[in-house]
Design goal:
Blueprint (H helix, E strand, L loop, with lengths): L1 H32 L11 E7 L6 H9 L6 E7 L6 H11 L4 E6 L8 H10 L6 E4 L4 E2 L4 H5 L8 E12 L2 H25 L9 E4 H6 L12 H11 L3 E13 L4 H18 L1 H5 L6 H11 L4 H25 L3 H6 L3 H14 L5 E4 L2 E5 L5 E4 L2
Parallel strand pairs: 1-2, 1-4, 2-3, 6-8
Antiparallel strand pairs: 4-7, 5-8, 6-7, 9-10, 10-11
């Protein structure tokens, strides 16, 4: 047991160091790329925004996409129901931004188990342009966003572009959840990119060519998957197209949440990842250095060696979290609450264990069963 906990602690230290190396490589290169945008490359873009419900930040989030310093783009909102609270917000956007091509497609037509993808399919029927940009409704961006994220497509071999994100949270529960984004999730993205290249996409932003989407079977190919964003990067990568992680970092706005909301959301994410990428997900056991070092300390009876392992592991862990979350991502949550990173790690491990104890998730009042590969089966709550 002592050697097992030591092995897990050492493996976590190696992982943290790899994340630091991957972050330095990515962000140093990104700083150079951000100053080399080709302002003459601005192909027309269709922005697809699947919407379900709203909160007090929805208008500003969506309005940020209407303020783009970009010559030719349209925004299409996909909504399932005319009574959805977002309908009034979109009508206000159309009034407030008369020079922007904004449309709302309201349709209850269902194309698969994932209703978000159904909204995308319905909205895409009104798309005018070859390049599609998909972004969740809780994302906020700057006016240079579109010009920057479109740049990698100047290379015809690139089929998909995606973005990292930093979170802005309201309330302590959302803050605790957001802390894991910049100190745990984004480091894992950078490590995966370093080891195997980008073979997936993130829902914060997905830019994809129509021709690439058609080559993988259209949105219908991901309509029954929970992690549709992962699939919209993974399927093109399998088909031979390059997936690029943009240097641009968007803001993810997290509204106030209850503890139940946090557990449902985190369980949904954990089980979705477990079924979509089972080997990678099981491998996370080697990244929980906060816990394994404490277990090693306990197993060695509080020895000097035990305390040394705890000290080294936590030092490297804090260094990784601070470098990526605070310095590179400029994440306000990480800046203020970095000290609680070990506590967030312990919660993540608990959720990792819990994710193996079932195959169902709850999503917007629906109970869904996960199946092999990450597909969903609908069932009643």
């Amino acid at each position: 047991m002592v050697y097992l906990f030591l092995l897990l602690s050492v493996s976590a230290i190696v992982y943290y160091c790899l994340a630091i190396y991957a972050a330095i490589q990515f962000f140093v290169k990104s700083k150079i790329q951000s100053t080399q945008a080709d302002l003459t490359f601005h192909p027309a873009v269709t922005i697809l925004k699947p919407i379900c419900g709203s909160d007090d930040r929805t208008y500003e989030n969506l309005a940020s996409f209407c303020r783009q310093d970009y010559p030719n783009y349209q925004i299409i909102f996909g909504i399932q129901n005319q009574t959805d609270s977002s309908v009034a917000i979109i009508q206000k956007l159309i009034q407030d931004f008369p020079t922007v091509d904004i449309q709302a497609v309201v349709s209850d037509r269902v194309h698969g188990t994932n209703l978000k993808v159904s909204n995308l399919i319905n909205a895409a029927t009104q798309g005018k342009y070859d390049i599609l940009l998909i972004a969740d409704s809780d994302i906020s961006v700057g006016s240079d966003y579109l010009q920057q994220v479109i740049q990698p497509l100047s290379d015809p071999k690139v089929g998909v572009v995606t973005c990292a994100y930093r979170s802005q949270a309201q309330g302590w529960i959302s803050t605790f959840e957001a802390l894991g984004v910049s100190t745990e999730f984004l480091p894992s993205v950078l490590v995966a990119r370093q080891l195997e290249g980008m073979t997936f996409a993130l829902g914060a932003t997905i830019v994809i060519r129509q021709s690439v989407l058609e080559a993988i079977g259209g949105f219908a190919a991901v309509a029954d998957y929970l992690e549709d964003d992962f699939q919209l990067g993974n399927l093109p990568a399998q088909a031979g197209y390059q997936v690029v992680l943009s240097h641009y970092v968007v803001s993810h706005i997290m509204p106030a949440a209850t503890l139940t909301d946090l557990l449902h959301h985190q369980t949904r994410w954990a089980r979705g990842t477990r079924f979509a990428r089972p080997n990678s997900y099981f491998g996370l056991i080697f990244t929980y250095g906060t816990l394994s070092s404490l277990l090693f300390l306990w197993a060695t009876g509080g020895s000097i060696v035990g305390w040394s392992v705890v000290g080294i592991t936590w030092l490297v862990r804090y260094t990784m979290a601070g470098l990526i979350g605070v310095i590179y991502l400029q994440d306000a949550v990480a800046k203020k609450w970095l000290v609680f990173t070990p506590l967030r790690d312990l919660m993540s491990f608990g959720l990792w264990c819990y994710s193996f104890m079932g195959d169902t998730i709850e999503w917007r009042g629906r109970k869904l069963q996960m199946t092999k590969g990450g597909k969903l089966i609908d069932s009643k709550l």
